[in-house]
Amino acid sequence: MACHVNLVPQSMATASAKPKAPPPPPAACSISKPFISAKLVHPSQSSFVSTFSPSRPQTLTPLRSSRPMTDLAVRCASKAEPPRIMISGAPASGKGTQCELITQKYDLVHVAAGDLLRAEIASGSENGKRARAYMDKGQLVPDEIVVMMVKERLLQPDSREKGWLLDGYPRSSSQAIALKKFGFEPDLFILLDVPEEILVDRVVGRRLDPVTGKIYHLKYSPPETPEIAARLTQRFDDTEEKVKLRLHTHHQNVEAVLSLYEDITLKVDGSVTKDDVFAQIDGSLAKLLEKKRATTESLAA
């Protein structure tokens, strides 16, 4: 930027007038004032004091703050990026239970595509109206609608600040690729691995109490009283034949998704107790967070 600075000391401003040649035309920017000191802020956030004097060259002296960084500033500077987790599991794999345990301990935002779909329809949003139009015709909701719902939820401030746990989604390679295009890639993909015979046993024995909404299992979690047992109902698709069809579809979808996340996949034995399953997940999440903290601290050093 063309800028001419003409600085006149105060003592010269009051000197007796003498005939002088007319001054040259001013530049695009001209400032005439007594001796001054100016604080300049460099774009890189470094600060300098620039002292101008007609009797000596200009000098630049760095300003150093005598105030140390506060504890809050240190914590903010070293705050690690929040975790981004995906979890997948077949029907009756215990995925819902593990999602509860993960979000309770790590305070992640739990995002389930099915819950989002129901919430959008109930709110009457644009995405909800589009989804309902397909459902009313008995058709599946297209991927692009569900992906937009998931995208908008993951962009919410709480998801960006705390991190997220994406439950049972993506279910296909096309959904995973769409999320990647929007910039959503997980740090860890958790796969609950349970043998099919155990899954069938869990599903077939599952029962619902229509009064309380509680889920029971005839073998693993029987009802407390004969009265409750008498009113339990079974889902129409909780039969051996239908659950095997659902498992076949699930396995096909998972294989396609795993090919995209194989380097970050954690395969967990889901046939053990829920506490043992969570212990496997918890250990991996703790290592992930420690790695994120170490990376952030090394960058801030």
Secondary structure tally: strands: 12
Q: Pick out the low-confidence regions.
A: 1-19, 25-78
Q: Please, how many helices?
A: 12
Report how far the terminal alpha carbons are from each other.
Answer: 36 Å
Report what the structure shows.
The chain is α/β, with parallel strands linked by helices and 301 residues long. The chain is 45% helix and 18% strand. Strand 1, helix 1 and strand 2 (30-31) form a beta-alpha-beta unit. Helix 4 crosses helix 6 (143-154) and helix 6 (143-154) crosses helix 8. The radius of gyration is 33 Å and the shape is globular.
Tag the structure with descriptive keywords:
45% helix, five-stranded parallel sheet, three-stranded antiparallel sheet, alpha/beta, disordered N terminus
Give the topology, please:
Layout: E1 4-5, H1 10-13, E2 30-31, E3 37-41, E4 47-53, E5 56-62, H2 71-77, E6 84-89, H3 95-106, E7 109-112, H4 113-123, H5 126-136, H6 143-154, H7 157-162, E8 164-167, H8 173-181, E9 188-193, H9 196-204, E10 206-208, E11 215-217, H10 226-231, H11 240-261, E12 265-269, H12 274-300
Parallel strand pairs: 1-2, 6-8, 6-9, 7-8, 9-12
Antiparallel strand pairs: 3-4, 4-5, 10-11
Brief write-up:
With 301 residues, this protein is α/β, with parallel strands linked by helices. Helices cover 45% and strands 18% of the residues.
